[in-house]
Amino acid sequence: MKADGSASLPYRLIATDLDGTLLRGDETISPRSRDALAAVTAAGAAHIVVTGRAVPWARHILDDLGYRGLAVCGQGGQVYHAGEHRLLTSVTLDRRLAEVALAKIEAETGPLALAASRDGLRGEVLTGPGYRLHGGPLPVTSFDDRADLWSAPLNKIYIQHPDLDDDTLARAAAEVAGQLVGVTVSGTGIVELLPLGLTKARGLSLAARRLGMKAADTIAFGDMPNDVPMFRWAAYGVAMANAHPDLKAVADEVTASNEDDGIAAVLERLLAEAV
């Protein structure tokens, strides 16, 4: 305990993914998780959201949480100031490279269903024929002509295959186009093509630097392969019980599921140990 009576936590930066991690299946955050995050921030730690969602698809959740600090969105490509509703940095996908990458992937796998996330605070999500979109409160824009994909800056492209599972599709994409784009799996049915070298770790390191913190200060929570780089960067990585096997394999700890307040359980333990 510090001289002022507050808890001395082993980590000053708490990095949490959203979907499958902090959020429950209905896209809400439990009262227990809210209370645990409030308690660690009151003890002097900073909470930072690190999500694959681009800003337009994360903003309403951050607002509901009362989140006012920095958030890393778009798989590390966007650093967003939630309190000011301001985009501080943004990395976009090279559309020419992406088009070549798609051609290489489809030459290997056959036709893909596509979606894309446009850049900016109000960037649209575009969905093409056959793309199976997960439910959500925000609208999407449909397209029939693939030329529409390339008409404005993009954060990422989503790909789906009628037969291949997510891991198989991601491996195939990385094998034939990994020198052009990054490839990651961020959720069920969500395989993404990203700017080459872009990861959550890159975005988190930028945001941490703005807060005067570093990897050694950080505990990270996640559930999918796109969280692997973040775990490798942070001092301590905690996978949810519902996490993908690839993430559990690199985690320092596996906690309860997102439905069972896994983040809160770890934070409450850290607070108790710090007293």
Ordered list of secondary-structure elements with their pairings:
Elements: E1 13-16, H1 18-22, H2 31-42, E2 46-50, H3 55-65, E3 70-73, E4 78-81, E5 86-90, H4 95-109, E6 113-118, E7 125-127, E8 141-142, E9 154-160, H5 166-177, E10 181-187, E11 190-195, H6 200-210, E12 218-222, H7 228-233, E13 236-239, H8 245-248, E14 253-254, H9 262-274
Parallel strand pairs: 1-2, 1-12, 2-3, 7-8, 12-13, 13-14
Antiparallel strand pairs: 3-4, 4-5, 6-7, 6-9, 9-11, 10-11
Gist?
This protein is of the alpha/beta class.
Explain what the structure shows.
This protein has nine helices and 14 strands. It is of the alpha/beta class and 275 residues long. The strands form two sheets. An eight-stranded mixed β-sheet has the order 5-4-3-2-1-12-13-14. Residues 1-6 have low confidence and may be disordered.
